[in-house]
# Entry
Amino acid sequence: MRAYSTGYPCPAVVEITLAEDPWGSPRLYAGIGEDRGRVQELPPGGRVRATAGDPDAGGVVICDLRGDEPEVPAEQEVDLPAVRVVLASHLASGGRIPPDQAEPRFVGA
# Structure
């Protein structure tokens, strides 16, 4: 994903769901840029959570999601190693980011 974003004006976004239960498991959106990214979790019937980066970051980041250009709050961006931690946690926990995920921090979006 990072290679696809390198050199482009906006980070690419990948949607991750469990193949066995795509409607019952959380959808995960991971925006992967050259050196920063973000993760947003949309659980069915639950509260949307997103990575919490710099709370003083103002503005928005334009992303590329299936040809659309959604705007996301810039404070949701974190370093790429933090994105990797979240994705590994998601995979190790059966398709759900643990509610007590310590680092990186998550906040309700």
